[in-house]
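Fold sample X.
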Amino acid sequence: MEQISDKLKKLREKHNFKQSYVASCLGITQQNYSRYESGKREFPIRLLPALSNLYNVSVEYILGMSMNEKDLTVLSDCLYNAKTLKEIIDDINSLNSENMSSLLIYIEFLKYKQKLNQK
């Protein structure tokens, strides 16, 4: 399961926000926010509603517990190499079963490779 610190960074980067901006929206220092995002400190529950409002996603999404329709709508508008998440999903859905199997194997390979690079 993805760590909250990873989710904080990904959400911030998807919105092209600087740490200092997010910190000011939460009423904390940039240094404290940096510690939350790096996983050096645990993110306080009291800040979750403000973060949820800032990114227009549910608290459950930030915690990695679930994803509702609002979360999917917000995330589907994010761009990944000039494609929206919806366009990527449409591309995936157009694959035949053989290519879908190959894609899933490749995804597992990329996750493994990424994990090795993080060490």
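Fold sample Y, listed below.
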Amino acid sequence: MSGIPTPIYSTIAVLVLLFGFWAVMLMDCLKRHELEFHTEMPNPKRMWTILLIVGIPWCSIIYFATVKRKD
């Protein structure tokens, strides 16, 4: 192999998986109808979209736990 240490490959693999997870959660948020967010607050789609764009990757994990798993 090349002179790149193995831990760098692992780090890159984790980052790629995290980016993919974030992209899937963002697409789910954008496709979801306002009533499917299971909340009483106004404009949940707008709030989650902004949070997902700004809070990469933590907000995608929170989105998955609070919105996506309820389906």
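Sample Y note: Helices lie at 6-31, 44-54, 58-66.
Also: The mean pLDDT is 87.
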